[in-house]
Amino acid sequence: MKSIQTRLLILLLIFIILPYFLSVLLIYRQTKENVERHELENSREQMQQASEDLAQYFDDIINLPYILYRNPDLFGVFEQGFESSLYFNQLEINKGMTTFYLMRSEIRQIRFYIDEGKSSFTVYNAVLSARKRKPDLLKQASIQKLINSDRNYLIEPPHRIENYNNTSFIPESDKSMVLTVHHKILDALSKKFLGIITIDIDLDKIARISNHIVQKNKETVLLSDSDGYVIYASDEALIGKTVPAELQNRIHSSAAGAQSPEGDIVFTRTLPEPIQEWRFTKITSSQFLFENVRETAYTNIIVGVIVVGLGLIMVAIISYKVTRPIKLLSRKVLSIEGGNLNAEFDDQREDEIGNLERHIKEMMNRINLHIDREYKLEIENRKNQHRALKSQINPHFLFNALQSIAAVALLSESPRVYQLITSLSKMMRYSIRVDQKSTVRSEADYVRAYLNLQEERFQTDFSFLIELPEAILPIPVPSMILQPLVENFFKHCYDEGFDQAHLHIYGEIRDECLNLVVENNGRSITDDELVALKNKIYAPVNEGNYSPQHIGLKNIHDRLVLHYDQSAGIELDSMQGQGFSVRLVIPSYLKEE
User: What is the pLDDT of residue 538?
Assistant: First the structure.
């Protein structure tokens, strides 16, 4: 059996806890989708801007060597070779190479290779090195690739800075990562190959452009060239190396903003000229992207836990306030079942429990009243039996003796004696079964036998009339209910000197009640005596108000009340001083128990 407390917990779970956490889950998913959508839109705009900035930056770096064509002295060295340029203004040539280095702050080293004479100059830290022949320079793979290319430039992946001419002014401690741009120098008209300018630039500017769209330590960017080498990455260990295969797959499998299997958001964009086919990638960790969403969800969960705790407290209070009275009421009912019919009930409560306790209390009062009535009725029956036994001297012996006398009377041809003995026998037979159920018919027969005997005694000094309709004769009534009234007729009439009295017994159904009336025209009583008599008869039964006077009337009234209810009893009437009447009122809608 499920207790009310358990049901309250189930209701709390179904109608409060589950809906709340389902709403938290739905809100989390909706917010996550909104954050992801917002991040996609924002990152697309940032990626677009960063891609344009990177393209513009590399366009500036790649086009930087074209300034050479504006310096006749410096360009003349490329056209005629270093030996022929000895006749030029050497100071201007040196100044031109150094000025070229100083044009961009991110330039770490510049190498000028003059094909005529295979001469090489380097500028590092704004210091021009001495000339050095480099006849094998064009055999290098990167240079070969540039010469054989239709493009005028080639960008090498980042690497440690090199000492191109083995000059002493590049310290060994310089381990800077630089990006190298090789640019072919051609004759503008003949397209003759004149030399190569190699520019080493640091990655600071690229890093600033790339990192502008990310939050440090929370998002990462990666710039890779068409060959899969990492130009720049938030993870410095990747710079200059090929993109790891796993990361390469994530980049190529991602659209311009897609979620990787790891849950990260990968944004990738192919850059325009002059670095077409390069990929700029931004990776946003889901751990960071949905950090605020998770914090909100955690806050909601904490609130939910608090709600659950408050709900449990509420259930505890409700269960204590509601179930405790029910448990107490259940214990009272169990105590009643165990035989305690005087359990205390709290009928002062104004709620449903109070109504229930009041109803149970009323029911127990009715049960106790019924038990008390049955108990008193049993006592009354025992008293009647005792009185019947005291009024009889071995009734069975007398009954048998009377039968023998009646037989002798018949043999002696004395029919009147036989009738009298028969009437007495009927009375004896009825008195023997005084504790058994009776009817109006049997009561009338008993009274008629009694009157037959009294008629012989008083001869013509009294008369009687019994008028009982056939319809009421089968109605059950308590036994010996009329005889005491008839006996009182002789006691209060003939014993007190009244003669020629008339006794009238009749019955009727009135207001759903059986009315049996015994009245006579003998001695009457005054109104005050009638009131005093009624007070004695209708007074509750207890030891303090016992009186031997009128005990017969009171016994009849109490027996009727015990057999039926308070609507039963006797009604007395002095008949305006012309006699005395006793009316027995028996509810016909109640069965005798």
Answer: 86
Residue 124 burial by CB count (10 A; 0-12/13-18/19+): exposed, middle or buried? buried
Q: How far is CA 174 from CA 20, 85, 132, in A?
A: 62, 33, 22
Q: Residues with Cβ < 8 Å from 2, sequence gap 6 or more?
A: none
Per-residue CA distances from 179 to 98, 151, 271, 541 (Å): 19, 18, 17, 124
pTM of the model: 0.51
Sign of the CA dihedral 370, 373, 375, 377? negative
- Joined together, the tokens standing for residue 133 give 């022949």
CB burial string 515-540: b at 16+ within 10 A, e below: bbbbbbbbebbeeeeeeebeeebeee
User: CA 293 to CA 306: how far, in whole Å?
Assistant: 20
Closest CA to 124 of 207, 198, 65, 34: 198
* Residues pairing with 267 in the sheet: 256, 282
**What is the DSSP code (8-state) at residue 447?**
H
Q: Would you say how long the chain is, in residues?
A: 593
Grouping H, G, I as helix, E, B as strand and the rest as coil, residue 224 is: strand
Show the tokens assigned to 200: 């080493």
Runs of H (alpha helix) within 185-244 = 204-211
pLDDT tens string 43-94 = 778 888 888 999 999 999 999 888 888 888 788 888 887 766 554 567 777 8
Per-residue pLDDT reduced to its tens digit, 321-351: 767 777 777 777 777 776 666 677 666 666 6
Do 107 and 123 touch, CB atoms closer than 8 A?
A: no
Contact in structure between 300 and 27 (CB atoms under 8 Å) = yes
Three-state secondary structure readout of 297-343:
HHHHHHHHHHHHHHHHHHHHHHHHHHHHHHHHHHHHHHHHHCCCCCC
CB of 232 within 8 A of CB of 202? no
Q: How far is CA 84 from CA 78, 97, 191, 204, 385, in A?
A: 10, 17, 21, 39, 165
Cα-Cα-Cα-Cα torsion 400, 406, 410, 416, nearest 10 degrees, comes to -170
* Sequence letter at residue 96: G
Query: Which tokens belong to 370?
Result: 């019924």
d(CA 231, CA 224) in angstroms, rounded, equals 5
| Closest alpha carbon to 184 in 145, 226, 225, 135 | 145
Instruction: Find, among 581, 579, 534, the residue nearest to 557 by Cα.
Output: 534
Model confidence over 176-198: pLDDT tens digits?
A: 899 999 999 998 888 899 999 99
The pLDDT > 90 percentage for the chain reads 17
Q: Answer yes or no: is pLDDT of 477 > 80.
A: yes
The pair of three-digit structure tokens given for residue 416, joined into one six-digit string: 């009147």
